[in-house]
Each structure stands twice: as C-alpha cells, then as structure tokens.
Amino acid sequence: MKIEADPEELGFDPARLARIDDHFARYVDDGRLAGYHAVVARDGRIVHSASAGHRDVDAGLPVTDDTRWRIYSMSKPITSVAAMVLWERGAFELTDPISRWLPEFAEPQVYVKGSSSKPLLEAATEPIRVWHLLTHTAGLTYGFHHAHPVDELYRAAGFEWSAPADLDLAGCVRAWARMPLVFQPGTEWNYSQATDVLGRLIEVVSGQTLDAFLDENVLGPLGMTATGFAVDDPDRLATLYLANPATGRYLSAEAAGMGAMAREAIEPTWLGGGGGLVSTAADYHRFTRMLLGRGEVDGVRVLGSRTVDYMGRNHLPGGLDLEQVGRPLFAEMPFHGVGFGLGFSVVLDPVAYKVPVSAGEMAWGGAASTAFWVDPVERVTAMFFTQLLPSSAHPIRSQLRGLVYQALID
C-alpha cells in the first residue's frame, strides 16, 4: 500500500519502523509464515507498509497489495458495526431478548454437569439478550475449543472449524439453539458463535440477507469493495496454511485434510458473520479508519460518534477483565488487563496486558493469524495479514505491537 505521510512528521522513526520488516521477513525465511502484509497508520495516514513472501507458495505468487486474505474473526467487528447500525435506527434495544426474532432461543437450557452424552441441564434464568451476543456472554461456544462437554456436542453436530454443508445460516442457528449453553447468560465470557447468531438476527430484523445488509450499510459506504463472503477474484486469494507442530513450518490446508475449510472463501455454504469474510489490507484500513474516526471516514458516516465510543467501553459483567470472567480457552489475544466491548476487545490496563499500548485500544484478530488494533489515544492503527492456522502458533500480535510502539518517538 502507498505510504501517505512522512513517518517523522507523524512521530515515527523510519529506521525503527524498518524493524517490522526485518523481524517478519525472518518468519518467511525460516518457513514459519508463507507471507504477510503489515500496515501502520497514524491519524488515518499510512506511514509504513511492509510485505514479504507468497500468497501461494506452490504457484509462486507473491503477496501483493490486492491479495485477498481470509480474515476469519476480524469479521466480528464488521458484523457488530452492522448490528449497531440497526440499533441506531431503533430496530431493537440491546436488552431485548433475541427470542423476539429467533424463537428457537425461547427456552435455552444450561449445562450444569455430566458428560456430553448425559449432561445435566437446567433452564436459563435469564434470556439471551442482544448485548450478550455482542459481548460473547450468551453462553454459546465453539466446537474447536475442546475444553467443555458442550464443545463436544458442537463437534458431534458438525461444527468445529466449519459447518455442515447442507446448512445455511438460519439452519446453523437452529442447530446451535438446540445445544445447551455453557453457562447462564450474562455471567461469563466465552469466545463463541455468538456473532454468527448476531448475523442471523440482522437478517431477520432487516429483512435482508446478511451479505446484502453489510454491502448496503457498512462495506459499500466505506468503499470496501473487495470484502465479502465469497472472494471476488480467486486468483488473488491467499492460500491457507497450517502450522506443523513437528517442524514449526507451514503446511497447506489441503495437505492437512482441511480442504473444505480452505474452499469456504470461494464457495461459502453459509454466511458466517463471525468468521466468513475475505478482505484486503486496503479495505480493512478503511474499516480501522472508521473506528478511529468515531464512525466516519472521508465524510461518510456509518455510525454516530457516541455509538462507537460506547462500543469501545468494557461491557463485561462488573467491569472485570477477561482473565476474571473469561473461560481459559483459545481466543485472539491475552486476557490480563483486557475487557470486551460490543464486538472487539478493549484494553483496560496496559501494565497488566504487558504491552505498551494505550488504555482504550480496540482490537481483535482472526484464526489465520491476522490482527488489527485501533489506539484512540495515540491515533495509531495497525493491521497484520497472513494465512496461518492457528493464530496461537506464533506470538505475532504482541511482537507487532512492540515493534510499532518502539518506533513511536514523539
């Protein structure tokens, strides 16, 4: 991507920014990553853009500015913004029970104890509300957690890294509604399919399919023309790789037996608002600029400024951080000193977080090791795109934060 401002004029040391290139080039050279693209901006203006390696190693195709990346859970903030567009129009209250639109959730059952084959359940004492979906406090889960008997039920129903081929979004939501909740709604935080359910809620409330609503109300207005559930140019799509635990090097998803997951970006069977989008660095830069601009980019307003401010507050029970109310499972970032807003994480205490970021930083990442953050105090945004599952394979996100902030010298 084109550099838009002199780094020194915006408080960065160019030589220190170059350390980003040196560091992640080693990831490519030793086979930990096939390729990557990192972008740093301040006040919405790009001061550094670095890339290396290949979007497709076997085909010899390099990473380019228009490479289409599977952003997986970086879809969640986009879907959450779409939901808040409806909220701003008075379509629902954050406290509304979702069963008003999704009657399959009218009588949720909650896991108490026992195995996946013989679980003891109890009735939910609180309905699942819209804000529970936005904050992952609904009691839903993911099959890939491998940490709870309910996770096993999700896997048995065909939900681990993908969904059964014969189910659309509505069918997926009905299937999840038949599963017990991991905990009583609103009492804990658990990374889950909640944003996918939120996507279905958007469909029912708006009367549009999720992709149509996103295009009309978020992606289109922001000029994110290369972002969608199906890649618009398959030749530009980054190949998906998995981290080989035996060697530390990448291995193609096809070779690892996850070809179905790799093909979802080309022929999606359902519209996963929690993880189904494909995007480019330029497109997602527009999205981060919108968050930094409190809902507005280049005169186009998607959300009101106070709405974005509110999304960026900690909405976890009791104002606690993820370490205190979150389940100790896979997620897209550390838990200490981090809360959760309406659709993304929010840094509460940089000291506890152990990275020199600002309180109020909004961020999230995706399963294929992608990441973004928006620092409203330093007015810095940063993004990292690559194609490696899982995101826990390497400490890319904390390293990138360190490399960006050590280059900021004003």
Describe the protein.
By secondary structure, the chain is α+β, with helices and mostly antiparallel strands. The protein folds into two domains: 7-81 and 209-406, DD-peptidase/beta-lactamase superfamily (Beta-lactamase, 3-Layer(aba) Sandwich); 95-206, Methane Monooxygenase Hydroxylase, Chain G, domain 1 (Up-down Bundle). 30% of the residues lie in helices and 17% in strands. It has helices spanning 14-29, 75-88, 130-135, 149-156, 169-177, 194-206, 210-222, 259-263, 281-292, 305-311, 322-325, 350-353, 396-406, and strands at residues 35-42, 45-56, 61-62, 69-70, 109-114, 119-123, 241-243, 250-252, 278-279, 296-297, 300-301, 338-340, 345-347, 362-365, 371-375, 380-385, 388-389. The protein has an eight-stranded antiparallel β-sheet, with helices on both faces. It has a three-stranded mixed β-sheet with strand order 8-7-17, with no helix packed on it. A two-stranded antiparallel ribbon has the order 4-9. A hairpin with a 4-residue loop joins strand 12 and strand 13 (345-347). Helix 1 packs antiparallel against helix 13 (396-406), helix 2 packs parallel to helix 6 (194-206) and helix 2 (75-88) crosses helix 7 (210-222). The longest helix has 16 residues, at 14-29. The radius of gyration is 20 Å and the shape is globular. The mean pLDDT is 94. GO terms for molecular function: hydrolase activity. Pfam families: Beta-lactamase. It comes from Actinomycetospora chlora. Residues 20-400 form the Beta-lactamase-related domain. InterPro entries: Beta-lactam-related, Beta-lactam/transpept-like, Diverse_Enzym_Activities.
